[in-house]
Design brief:
This protein is mainly alpha-helical and 187 residues long. It contains 10 helices and 5 strands.
Amino acid sequence: TDKYKPIQLPARKYTGVLFVCMIRSPYFWVNSTLKQPYDLAFRRGFRENAAYLSSPAVLRRQQSFRNIVQVWNNYYQRYARELESENRVVYIRLEDLVSDTANTLQQLESFLERKPGSDLKRIIEGVSPVPSKSHNAHGAAWREKNQLQHLTASTSRSDLEFVTGQLDHKLMKKFGYPLLWFPPEVS
């Protein structure tokens, strides 16, 4: 059997359920898994990002992937394959939610009905701007760390090229994320 087969969603149907799927740019998501691996397991003792990026990843102690980028691909391919055909999924980019919260939430109102009398502005203002975990960046620091300039300054060109080469380009286009491209180096 192929140990890299995709994970399947549970067979049961969630009648009447709309899945709101939060997306994060895979370039930034991959870097965040270095700090917080979630349900992923890797070899320990990485000295370089390249070893981390190309190492097999195991999700929830059940499913193996060739590398961390394939986990990102599989996750969103699964939503598309199993939920889009029935219009049961809406994708929200984390970057949009952070940078333009009100507009992003208003876009959801075409799919979800807000509780009568609720004030979207008051709800947004009532959410704490400080993350629940002290090691998470927020505010200006989060925005800075999620800029393309920070990514290209903090990640080697070869690591960025590896990630780009592993990504599902159709997913990137669907979600409006650019593929990083570098012109050839001139000596």
